[in-house]
Design a protein that fits this description.
About 50% of the residues lie in helices and about 25% in strands. It is of the alpha/beta class. It has an 8-stranded mixed β-barrel with strand order 8-9-11-12-13-14-15-16, surrounded by 5 helices. It has a 5-stranded mixed sheet with strand order 2-3-1-6-7. The N and C termini lie far apart (about 60 Å). It binds ligand C2E and calcium ion (CA) (2 copies).
Length: about 400
Amino acid sequence: MKISIVIRRLALFFIDLDRFKQINDSLGHDMGDIVLKEVSQRLKAKIRSTDTLARLGGDEFTILMEDLKTPHDAALQGQKIIHVLEQPIHVEGHTLYVTSSIGISLYPEDGDDASHLLKYADAAMYKAKEEGRHNYKFYSSEMIDLAFERVQMETNLYQSLKNEEFVVYYQPQIDGYTDKLIGMEALVRWQHPSKGLIAPDKFLSIAEDTGLIVELDRWVMKTAMTQLVEWYKKGLNPGKLALNLATKQLQEEDFLSMLHDMLIEIGMKPEWLELEITESAIMNNPQHAMAVLKSISELGVELAIDDFGTGYSSLSYLKKLPINKIKIDQSFIRELPFDEKGAGITKSIIALSKSLNLRVVAEGVETSEKRDFLVENGCINIQGYFYSKPIPADKMEVMLQKGLNH
Ligand code: C2E
Ligand code: CA
Ligand code: CA
């Protein structure tokens, strides 16, 4: 890439497809190639003759745009790229939803040589991923530290799993009528020797990219199930254990036999367990997900859809899936009870779950007003800071002994 030094504004877009690896892993490389061709065609159709598109390899592309008047123009272009890539791709009977994360660096603001601009756009792209993917981000100088941290984390994660630096926290799920505990969700944290407790948002995407998520999730499953069984053995009543299942986990061929063996080995009754999956994990490859979920359900383990309302769920699939429960996404709960839209969406999700005969739980419930609104509207199961933050096992044990005390 060559950038001539004439004073005019250039923008470098670093585009990376979100969760592309999942397409390759679940549908095969041929399908992955078709998707990449489609993506590059869309990008080609999008750019002007003065722009330069390049594929860096894998699912990474760059576009160098010349003669942009303001950074705002670059933002608009970023939005347009996101939009053109988020349109569904239809291949061989599959409908794929591919989204992208984009980092943008600007000349002359951020630097004046190509290699720096590329490095900066790359760092901004990682930031876009970190903030939930499917968006664009401009470079800022703190990002280079972040990118450095990321590389460090990638190498550290493997070691930390070996060193058992992860811990499982538990967040109670409560019956909002009676204030009684009905179960809990296991949430992983990284107890870093020098950095302290690190939240999952900071390391899960790295664990997903490197594939370490499978091992990590299995460790969480084993640890949390062992803990739950221990509580039952002590005569406590922890209720149902909810575990988050990474998309990748569902795609592992041995997942079912692993789950089956783990339940037996630990002495965990299937009815004590509930697995949470996201809509996108299902919709990514619905046929496959359907088969796996059916088998999980046949084991007697319940299934919940996490972050409901944020993904691309299709009602026709929802009806066919062996799902027992829906978790209303926090973003709707945050707006309750005064925001009309949030309230409307929440009520319709509750109504939908009733009509499909599913239980419903709300998460991210921080205040008594929100709890009351939900309970009055028929969502009895509540999870959120109002009752308790996620807490380590010893604190949870005290709560189980004493009863809830919020
Ligand atoms: P999630 O499954 O949606 O979990 C709920 C998240 O909301 C948790 O964040 C929890 O601490 C937070 N939360 C609960 N109540 C409230 C509230 O009242 N207010 C606010 N502001 N937040 C609340 P956390 O523990 O940081 O986990 C983030 C995400 O990381 C989880 O979102 C889940 O997707 C993922 N995750 C956590 N543990 C695991 C794991 O063991 N395996 C996998 N695959 N994913 C995990
Ligand atoms: Ca969850
Ligand atoms: Ca959730």
